[in-house]
Structure formats: C-alpha cells, structure tokens
Specification:
This is Beta-lactamase. Pfam families: Beta-lactamase. By secondary structure, the chain is of the alpha+beta class. Helices cover 31% and strands 16% of the residues. The strands form three sheets. It has a six-stranded antiparallel sheet with strand order 2-1-11-10-9-8, sandwiched between helices.
Length: 270
C-alpha cells in the first residue's frame, strides 16, 4: 500500500503530489483540475511581498494597517484586525488574530509602493518565472487564487529549493515572526504559541494540527477552506500538495495528519 492510497479515506475526490528536491516522487488523481486555493493564496502573496521586501521597495516596519501596525503585523496576522474588516480586537502585536483583511491590506500597501497592480506583480514576479501558467489571480490577495495542483506543486517546489529569494529572505518568510504570540488556528482551536511567517503558517508545536505528528516544527505551508493544502518540511526535504472536491471538514482533520505521516515514512529524506 502506498501512502497516497490514503486519499481514499477522504470519501470524496482527492488528488496529491509528493515532491523531493529532484521533483515528483509520487502522484495520484487529477492534477490539472482547476481548484479554488482559498487561503493557500496567502502563501503566494507572501512570496510576492517578500520579493518586494528583498528589492527594498517596501520594509517590514513600514506603517500599514491600523494605528501602530506595520507590514510585518499584517502579513503575520498580528495587526489586531478582525477576520474580514479593519475593525480591531486589540492593539497590534499582542495576539495572533487570523485576518483575511490584514493580508489584503498588506497587498494594498505593497501595491501602493510599487505603483502598479498587485496581481500583475504576482504574475510577473512569481507565476511566470515558476511556469504557473494556469494560475488565475482573483480580486483578493488572501483567498482569490484558482489553479490546478500542478501549478501549486511548482510553487511548493520553489519553496523547497528557492530560486526567487536570497536565503535570508526565504528564512524570514518561512520561519516565525513574533514567535511568542498566542492565537486561534482556524479549525484547530487555540494554539500557544501560534507561529506564522510572512503569509505562511509555521507548524511549530501546534496540536491538534492538519500536518502529521512526524512533521518537524520547521514545517511551513497553508490549508484552504475549499480543500487545498500544501506543506514543506525542510528537515525531511519533502513537500506534499493535496487538493479535494470538498470544503475543509472533519475528514480533512482526520485524514491529512495520517496522510502526512505516511508520506514522511515512505518518501522522507533519502
């Protein structure tokens, strides 16, 4: 039995691809079907913003968002903004409040600094260099991307072996910013701490979690509420990309950790 046979446990259509640094190690299902990435979009936005940071077009300590907030706060769900509005629950930097609005506002800040459409920046500086030819960029930098798993796999491969970022910027993007912050992880309850990088979730010691018990604390990635997800585990030197035809539900909470551990056991560092 292969690890990817666990896709049957979802009980609905699912596909997946396992990546090592040399490329695909296993795949199953429809990798070309367009899927709504939803919050996985945040990772593409995180990379696009970090490219702007690397080039000095913006800075993490730029004032952005509510009073006292910075671009760093917006990209790491620490601005205090609510989920979908500029209303704040508390001052910036005190707690991790997951916020689509905050990520969208981060993209607007970068857009103003660039003097051009953020979606065009994503296309030119992320999608085209990586060959993500079927990525459709919607109106929201937090949840708007639609594309096949084949394109998401190209993005995951870039995260495994970066070519668009210098090592220090890749590290900043994918390791915890404001690492001590506590907060609610959507679908998985309060996490203490609840680490995030720049648009990327970082596994840390979160429990329960959608990755596996054997994933390292350095694992980073994201899941989306329409059933797409990916993680990169630097310690295992491995990535997993998953897409399903069902909104994120109890089946994902149950199967994703099992699938992740099985993938690590079968395909981990060689």
């Amino acid at each position: 039995m292969s690890a990817l046979d666990l896709l049957d446990e979802f009980g609905f259509e699912a596909a997946a691809l396992v990546l090592g640094p040399e490329g695909a190690r296993a795949q199953r299902g429809d990798l070309d079907l367009p899927r709504a990435w939803r919050s996985v979009t945040k990772t593409v936005t995180g990379l696009a913003c970090t490219i702007a940071l690397q080039e000095g077009r913006v800075h993490l300590d730029d004032e952005a968002g509510p009073p006292g907030s910075t671009l760093r706060h917006l990209l790491t769900h620490a601005s205090g903004c609510t989920y979908e509005s500029p209303n704040t629950l508390q001052p910036p930097g005190q707690r991790r409040h997951y916020s689509n609005y905050g990520i969208d506002e981060a993209s607007r800040h970068v857009e103003r600094a660039l003097g051009r459409d953020f979606g065009d920046w994503v296309t030119e500086r992320v999608a085209e260099p990586l060959g993500m030819d079927h990525l459709e960029w919607g109106g929201s930098a937090s949840v708007g991307a639609v594309g096949p798993l084949a394109d998401l796999a190209l993005f995951a491969a870039e995260m495994l072996r970066p070519t668009l970022l210098e090592p220090e910027w890749h590290r900043q993007m994918t390791t915890p910013q404001l690492p001590e912050l506590v907060g609610i992880m959507p679908g998985f309850g309060k996490q203490s701490p609840n680490p995030f990088g720049l648009g990327f979730e970082v596994r840390g010691t979160k429990s329960p979690h959608w990755t596996g018990a054997d994933n390292s604390e350095e694992t980073f990635g994201h899941f989306g509420m329409r059933g797409c997800a990916f993680w990169v585990d630097p310690r295992a030197d491995l990535a997993l990309v998953v897409g399903t035809s069902h909104d994120f539900c109890d089946a994902h909470r149950r199967v994703m950790p099992l699938l992740s551990d099985a993938v690590l056991e079968e395909f981990g560092r060689r």
